[in-house]
User: Fold this.
Amino acid sequence: MTTDFIPTEYAKRYTVDMVRAHQVYKNSAGKRVPGVTTVLGILEKPGLLKWAWRMGQDGKDIEKVRDEAAAIGTVSHARVEAHLRGMEFDASGITLERMTQSGYAFDGFLSWWEREGYSVLATEMQLVSERWQVGGTLDILARDRDGALVLVDIKTSNGLYREHRLQVAAYAAMYEETNDERISRLVIVRIPKDESGVVEPVEVVNRADCEAAFAAVASAYRALSKVR
Assistant:
């Protein structure tokens, strides 16, 4: 849990690792468990197929476009985390294009965050569910103006999809599995990677349904992992 937030003056530098390996999660017995996004990877993604078709029609290299979008997303997330932790973002080694496009995302997030009046409690909180035997990392845990606990998940994708709702519902359930306080609101916020500045916040209102759906997907994932 990240709680060492530094007030006002920048006291540390935040350096983003662009080539870091995927996060490894382990249960209480030390056994490796899959991540929430890995589990959700078994779901059909029609939007991805449409995107791939458009890229092919435009003669673009799908892998290069995908990897560049992922890199911009990584930098955008890192800039948000650095700000919330009161750290100076280290831009050395990051291309001008990535800084420019992540800047649109960061500025959009910052404007939205300040309008909402949230106060940050933790960022990049790693969780493991003994019940589901899965791990995950929630983006932001915060309080709203009324003091309610809010889970905020940042997306830099071109849209918000069903699996995003299942993902945040899973994170909330995983947090509450080992913490006494209930999370009151789940908010997914899509931040722009272009000059539009359009921020798309969506509150998950059917949390129970999303949690039940994730539990079913996790069960299917475990069953499928046994089939060779």
